[in-house]
Specification:
This protein has about 140 residues and is an alpha+beta fold. About 20% of the residues lie in helices and about 40% in strands. The strands form 2 sheets. Strands 1, 2, 5, 8 and 9 form a 5-stranded mixed β-sheet that branches.
Length: about 140
Protein backbone atom coordinates (compact mmCIF):
# COMPACT_ATOMS: atom_id res chain seq x y z
CA UNK A 1 0.00 0.00 0.00
CA UNK A 2 2.84 2.41 0.82
CA UNK A 3 4.45 1.64 -2.55
CA UNK A 4 1.19 2.56 -4.32
CA UNK A 5 1.03 5.83 -2.37
CA UNK A 6 4.62 6.62 -3.36
CA UNK A 7 3.90 5.93 -7.02
CA UNK A 8 0.77 8.07 -6.94
CA UNK A 9 2.64 10.90 -5.21
CA UNK A 10 5.33 10.74 -7.91
CA UNK A 11 2.74 10.90 -10.67
CA UNK A 12 1.06 13.90 -9.04
CA UNK A 13 4.38 15.72 -8.56
CA UNK A 14 5.33 15.07 -12.19
CA UNK A 15 2.01 16.49 -13.36
CA UNK A 16 2.36 19.49 -11.08
CA UNK A 17 5.90 20.20 -12.29
CA UNK A 18 4.73 20.01 -15.92
CA UNK A 19 2.00 22.53 -15.16
CA UNK A 20 4.46 24.80 -13.36
CA UNK A 21 6.82 24.82 -16.35
CA UNK A 22 3.91 25.46 -18.72
CA UNK A 23 2.55 28.24 -16.51
CA UNK A 24 5.84 30.15 -16.74
CA UNK A 25 6.35 29.60 -20.46
CA UNK A 26 4.78 32.17 -22.80
CA UNK A 27 4.00 29.77 -25.67
CA UNK A 28 2.20 26.46 -26.08
CA UNK A 29 0.72 24.58 -29.05
CA UNK A 30 -1.87 21.84 -29.51
CA UNK A 31 -2.57 19.67 -32.56
CA UNK A 32 -5.90 17.86 -33.01
CA UNK A 33 -6.77 15.53 -35.88
CA UNK A 34 -10.12 16.61 -37.35
CA UNK A 35 -10.66 13.22 -39.04
CA UNK A 36 -11.11 11.41 -35.75
CA UNK A 37 -11.21 14.20 -33.16
CA UNK A 38 -8.15 12.85 -31.37
CA UNK A 39 -4.88 14.52 -30.37
CA UNK A 40 -1.92 14.23 -32.73
CA UNK A 41 1.13 13.06 -30.79
CA UNK A 42 4.52 13.05 -32.48
CA UNK A 43 4.20 16.19 -34.62
CA UNK A 44 7.51 18.05 -34.96
CA UNK A 45 7.18 21.80 -34.32
CA UNK A 46 9.71 24.58 -34.97
CA UNK A 47 9.60 28.05 -33.40
CA UNK A 48 11.34 30.97 -35.13
CA UNK A 49 11.57 34.71 -34.52
CA UNK A 50 11.66 37.25 -37.34
CA UNK A 51 14.70 39.51 -37.30
CA UNK A 52 14.57 41.91 -40.22
CA UNK A 53 13.97 39.83 -43.34
CA UNK A 54 15.33 36.63 -41.76
CA UNK A 55 13.93 33.99 -39.45
CA UNK A 56 16.02 32.73 -36.52
CA UNK A 57 15.19 29.34 -35.00
CA UNK A 58 14.54 29.55 -31.25
CA UNK A 59 13.41 26.02 -30.39
CA UNK A 60 11.88 22.78 -31.55
CA UNK A 61 9.60 20.26 -29.93
CA UNK A 62 7.40 17.24 -30.49
CA UNK A 63 3.76 17.04 -29.43
CA UNK A 64 3.06 14.72 -26.49
CA UNK A 65 0.32 12.10 -26.07
CA UNK A 66 -2.28 14.87 -25.76
CA UNK A 67 -0.99 16.52 -28.95
CA UNK A 68 0.51 19.36 -26.91
CA UNK A 69 3.78 21.12 -26.37
CA UNK A 70 3.18 23.02 -23.15
CA UNK A 71 6.44 25.00 -23.16
CA UNK A 72 7.69 25.75 -26.68
CA UNK A 73 9.49 29.02 -25.92
CA UNK A 74 13.15 28.67 -24.83
CA UNK A 75 13.56 28.50 -21.07
CA UNK A 76 15.20 31.54 -19.54
CA UNK A 77 14.32 33.88 -22.42
CA UNK A 78 11.53 36.43 -22.46
CA UNK A 79 9.06 36.79 -25.28
CA UNK A 80 9.78 40.09 -27.02
CA UNK A 81 7.29 42.04 -29.07
CA UNK A 82 7.56 41.05 -32.70
CA UNK A 83 6.73 38.39 -35.27
CA UNK A 84 7.15 34.68 -34.65
CA UNK A 85 6.56 31.61 -36.79
CA UNK A 86 5.48 28.22 -35.52
CA UNK A 87 5.85 25.55 -38.22
CA UNK A 88 4.04 22.25 -37.76
CA UNK A 89 5.82 19.48 -39.74
CA UNK A 90 2.59 17.79 -40.78
CA UNK A 91 3.90 15.94 -43.85
CA UNK A 92 6.13 13.66 -41.80
CA UNK A 93 3.34 13.02 -39.29
CA UNK A 94 0.88 12.01 -42.03
CA UNK A 95 3.53 9.86 -43.70
CA UNK A 96 4.10 7.99 -40.42
CA UNK A 97 0.34 7.37 -40.31
CA UNK A 98 0.18 6.14 -43.95
CA UNK A 99 -1.99 9.09 -44.96
CA UNK A 100 -1.53 11.33 -47.99
CA UNK A 101 -1.71 15.07 -47.34
CA UNK A 102 -1.75 18.27 -49.35
CA UNK A 103 0.15 20.18 -46.65
CA UNK A 104 3.72 19.04 -45.93
CA UNK A 105 3.94 21.75 -43.28
CA UNK A 106 1.72 24.37 -41.70
CA UNK A 107 3.47 27.65 -40.86
CA UNK A 108 1.62 29.95 -38.48
CA UNK A 109 3.00 33.49 -38.25
CA UNK A 110 1.82 35.61 -35.33
CA UNK A 111 2.65 38.92 -33.66
CA UNK A 112 3.41 39.05 -29.96
CA UNK A 113 2.52 42.42 -28.51
CA UNK A 114 2.40 41.82 -24.74
CA UNK A 115 -1.40 42.04 -24.78
CA UNK A 116 -1.46 38.63 -23.08
CA UNK A 117 1.07 36.77 -20.90
CA UNK A 118 0.65 33.45 -22.68
CA UNK A 119 0.08 32.63 -26.34
CA UNK A 120 -1.52 29.31 -27.25
CA UNK A 121 -1.71 28.15 -30.87
CA UNK A 122 -4.07 25.25 -31.55
CA UNK A 123 -3.94 23.55 -34.95
CA UNK A 124 -6.99 21.62 -36.15
CA UNK A 125 -5.65 19.35 -38.84
CA UNK A 126 -6.89 17.08 -41.61
CA UNK A 127 -5.04 15.79 -44.70
CA UNK A 128 -6.53 18.48 -46.95
CA UNK A 129 -7.28 21.35 -44.62
CA UNK A 130 -6.41 23.05 -41.35
CA UNK A 131 -7.56 25.80 -39.05
CA UNK A 132 -5.81 27.71 -36.30
CA UNK A 133 -6.59 30.55 -33.92
CA UNK A 134 -5.19 32.34 -30.87
CA UNK A 135 -6.20 30.23 -27.95
CA UNK A 136 -5.64 30.77 -24.25
Amino acid sequence: MNKLKSVMAGVMLTGASTLAVAAGNPLSVHVLNLENGLPSPGVQVVLEQQQGNEWTQLSTGVTNEQGRITALFPEGKSLENGNYRVTFETGEWFKEHDTATFFPEVPVIFSADASVEHYHIPLLLSPYGFSTYRGN
